[in-house]
Automatic annotation (TrEMBL):
GO molecular function: ATP binding
Keywords from the UniProt entry: Amino-acid transport, ATP-binding, Nucleotide-binding, Transport
PANTHER family, A to Z: BRANCHED-CHAIN AMINO ACID TRANSPORT SYSTEM,ATP-BINDING PROTEIN, HIGH-AFFINITY BRANCHED-CHAIN AMINO ACID TRANSPORT ATP-BINDING PROTEIN LIVF
Protein name: ABC transporter ATP-binding protein
Alphabetical list of InterPro entries matching this protein: AAA+_ATPase, ABC_branched_ATPase_LivF/BraG, ABC_transporter-like_ATP-bd, ABC_transporter-like_CS, BCAA_Transport_ATP-bd_LivF, P-loop_NTPase
Length: 239
């Protein structure tokens, strides 16, 4: 069996007549952290939404754990083991933190396992445990990001996709999120990360892909991309 958990071939996605993803191919190896970087509008979010089944490709193939995903409905994709923590978090502010977490387990029936995973989320993010009965809307931005990640983990995914987890966070919160990604990886979760903060993301990535106007223009290990002159100029703010 191939080591790739996710394999994308020549994927194209359009909004009406506007093609946002123009024939990209990439893969995510089992047990690794893979990052997509790129400027605003490059097509990163569109790619993740397509992998989750929220958008349909116009052509190309998505193979996840040996199965074709490109025509599978979104809820079945979650059941197959692919979870998505979306950009902007989308937590439910009036529901409690614990209720938000439980929503992430909506397809599961194993009560004991669910309880165990709620506790695991509280171990990973103690602040969520301390405030479990409070409305999620009272959490800070960084804490809401933790809740979104905790909720995505409640489906026990084989692949966790994180869209801009550090957006709007203080440096300390961002470090916490990045440390959590490393912790999840050591626990065996495969991660596909989309990040504006290229330095932080590439530092912890096994492989990265650079997207520009709907195409992949460069790939390499995290270290190779961090040392690449064009990446340093365009994404790491160097002259
Ligand atoms: P960002 O980091 O700003 O979120 P991105 O790389 O995630 O950028 P996308 O959000 O995937 O980029 O957008 C890719 C392109 O598709 C952009 O040109 C964007 O304007 C366009 N686009 C995104 N969503 C829609 C939509 N619902 N309708 C029409 N065009 C869209």
């Amino acid at each position: 069996m191939s080591t790739a958990l996710l394999e994308i071939q020549d994927l194209r996605v359009a909004y009406g007549k506007i093609e946002a993803v123009k024939g990209i191919s990439f893969s995510v190896a089992r047990g690794e952290v893979t990052t997509l970087i790129g400027t605003n509008g490059a097509g990163k979010t569109t790619t993740l939404r397509t992998l989750s089944g929220l958008l349909r490709p116009t052509s190309g193939s998505i193979t996840f754990d040996g199965e074709r995903l490109d025509t599978v409905p979104a809820h079945k994709i979650v059941a197959l083991g692919l979870a998505h923590s979306p950009e902007g978090r989308h937590i439910f502010p009036r529901m409690t933190i614990e209720e938000n977490l439980l929503l992430g387990a909506f397809l599961r029936k194993d009560q004991a396992g669910i309880t165990e995973d709620v506790e695991r989320a509280y171990t990973l993010f103690p602040i969520l445990g301390e405030r479990r009965k409070q409305a999620a809307g009272t959490l800070s931005g960084g804490e809401q990001q933790m809740l979104a990640m905790g909720r995505a983990l409640m489906s026990r995914p084989k692949l966790l996709m994180l869209d801009e987890p550090s957006m709007g966070l203080s440096p300390i919160m961002m470090q916490k999120i990045m440390a959590t990604i490393i912790e999840l990886k050591s626990g065996g979760t495969t991660i596909l990360l989309v990040e504006q903060n290229a330095q932080a993301a590439l530092s912890l990535s096994d492989r990265g892909y650079v997207m520009q106007t709907g195409q992949i223009v460069l790939t390499g290990t995290g270290a190779e991309l961090l040392n690449d002159e064009s990446v340093r100029k365009s994404y790491l703010g160097e002259d």
